[in-house]
Amino acid sequence: MKIYAEITGWGKCLPPAIMTNDDLATFLDTSDEWIRTRTGIEERRVSYVGTSKLATVAARNALAAAGLDANDLDLIIVGTCTPDEIIPNVASAVQRDLGAKYAAAFDLNAACSSFLYGMHYATQAIRTGAHKKVLIIGAERLTRILDWTKRESAVLFGDGAGAMVLEATTEECGLLASHVTCDADARDVLALEFGMSFDRFGFDGIMPFNFVGQEIFKRAVKGMNMAVEKVFAETGLTTDDIDSLIPHQANKRLIDYLAKMCNVPEEKTVINIQKYGNTSSATLPIAFCEAVEQGIVKPGDTIVSAVFGGGLTCGAGIIKWGQRVTPIRDNNETLPSNGQTALDLILPVYEGTRKAWEKREHE
Fold it and tell me: Which residues belong to any copy of the Beta-ketoacyl-[acyl-carrier-protein] synthase III N-terminal domain (predicted)?
């Protein structure tokens, strides 16, 4: 008897503070028109809490949608490149805060590809019988690591979290095929110089963020194209069998390219980058959650997803949705406002980084 991994729960967490393009233009040499025409982004969210808190709210919503108690879980995977600390992992904080006493918990860092990587390995774990109920989360607080003096990267990213519950079933659904890979020759074109090589004693307030946009775009197109072709070949499906496209939300031009490649019309392509920017590992689960809420995903639908991220990691998957598209319990828990605007949260970071650059230039 073949075992599949059905998506039974879904949830998200979006910080209440919104930073618009016009807000950015108050301290960066940019404009709403400049950002929109190049990226499709209109606004993004800024969190006042850490990644684990965002992840926990999204997880609670996913558990509510699945109608599960936290103690039903036997594995928690958190995809993130912005953990609260190096040790311990974010997943252990989520496990503690949910009260999921019987779950193993670990983090996975494939940057923006992390959630699909998590689905790939969680599905294999369920298919082999190693686990039966798995919680996957993509969560990021990217606004705390950005260099807010650099227009080319500062305008792209935002904070948020999304989650899914996968459960073992004999019904043919869930992630039917997936392909994940890594183009390590280009790992330096998207990089943050922070880690065990980081000199904490010589830290001057600057975390250099290397972002070579054109090279990333070129390699992303090539990598995702190959991954999508592989999952179509594995399943025997064609673009005619696809009901919707739910891609990583990195750039509107890239999403349009994927839609054309997969022969999916605009009305069946999930695009929310205009509201949230690129939330890295969180973009995929947030987009899935909204697609279900908006009725884009219907019972039994076949969905194609593609992602790329730092590494350069890449992947694609074909997902067959189950028969339920309504949550069993209310899954609309939100993060309350702390009274601070996005500018309140970001301007001190911007000023500190600007002064650090000035100091470095005069040394």
Answer: 106-183
